[in-house]
Hints:
It is a single chain. The protein is built from twelve helices and 21 strands. 35% of the residues lie in helices and 27% in strands. By secondary structure, it is of the alpha/beta class. It is globular, with a radius of gyration of 22 Å. The structure holds 8-demethyl-8-dimethylamino-flavin-adenine-dinucleotide (RFL).
Amino acid sequence: MTSTAPHPNSPSPQRFPVVIVGAGPAGLTIGNILRAASVDCLVLEVETREFIEQRPRAGVIEEWAVRGLEQRGLAANLLERAELHTQCEFRFGGQRHRLSYTELTGHHHFIYPQPLLVTDLVREYADVRGGAIRFGVRDVQLHGLDSERPTVSYIDPETGQRELVDCEFVAGCDGARGVTRTVLPQHARIARHDYGIGWLALLAEAPPSSDCVMFGIHPRGFAGHMPRSPEVTRYYLECPPGDDPETWSHERVWAELQERLGAADRPPLTEGRLIEKRVLDMHNYVVEPMVFGRLFLAGDAAHLTAPIAAKGMNLALHDAFLLGDGFVEYLTKGDKGVLDGYSEACLGRVWDYQEFSQWLSEVYHGTSSGDAYRAGTTLARLSRLFASPSAAASFAEQYLGKISAS
Length: 406
Ligand code: RFL
């Protein structure tokens, strides 16, 4: 069981200034920042390297986040291979409505699948910057987080032995189902929001059917079309929460997508084999503060945003830039300023993105809610987006995310 008490037996513990739990975008970015400053750290990951390099998830990365990666020497492949997106399309009532957010703001999105980013980050961390990482670890436990010398322990998959690591800080970057959030003290505040709906998340071996992201607003439920590469497209279909993905046959999926994303003046979607099919129960949470003693949470471990507005990985990168820089400032110069302001600096952006996700969720799901009042106000929101330049500009700004990295 995970505890915050000191670990009883520590024969010859390893020592690292920072232990990072989780090798997702947050943990690997922090590791890379530390290694670039010659600060030692250890990354602990439950999965194998092959698994994390293939786990399909995000694709939309905001411009400020890419610049943040670039400044830290982590965006070479991304800048060479990512596609740029400059507009999105809403489809409702059988009509198409385009919103050119780059024309309105001068900014764009990058499309780069998360597995490619994770592959780049792990290669740079482990193979280029010489960072220590253990894959396939079991039963990570945290001890003495309220002391100046916390300990992290884990079961080594090869020996089956429990290993101990002494450190100064623990970065909790183990995502929504990790262990680090479970050791929070009783008084920690976790604000939760459950949308009460599910999304069937699909990856299709099919070229995109449009050059941009499409949102299908339909009385049968929301549908999304997100290009990932010339060969692969992510789709979403609103469904009941907890729905069984096996009830969604190939034929049923494509029939619903054609219906919900149909537009009178466009040919049907290009269909293809479904290579991922899972139901996501749409919910959010925010942990406040994000720091407990020597434990600093980052990314999905600290806050979850359902993939409604494609914000989760962007927030994880924002946290990672601040936390990585904060650790370096403190461990190389003794300056604790950035670490002290870490939680507050992250939470401003977190709540801003949460609010936008909630707003957008109503646009996506209002017409299918079965509530005539919500359906009416949703259509009014959509009409305003395309009738009012200032409403469109405000949407564009929030959809692109706060422009600066701070
Ligand atoms: P991750 O990526 O979940 O990484 C956490 C890592 O920790 C490991 N782990 C543990 N390691 C050690 N000990 C334990 N006890 C552990 N428990 C877990 C896990 O194996 C994993 O390797 O968290 P991180 O780094 O905070 O990154 C968050 C992002 O992955 C997430 O927010 C995004 O994927 C969300 N998201 C999107 N975000 C965007 O910004 N843009 C998008 O377009 C976008 N699309 C999406 C998404 C998430 C999706 N799903 C599956 C929820 C699309 C989907 C379908």
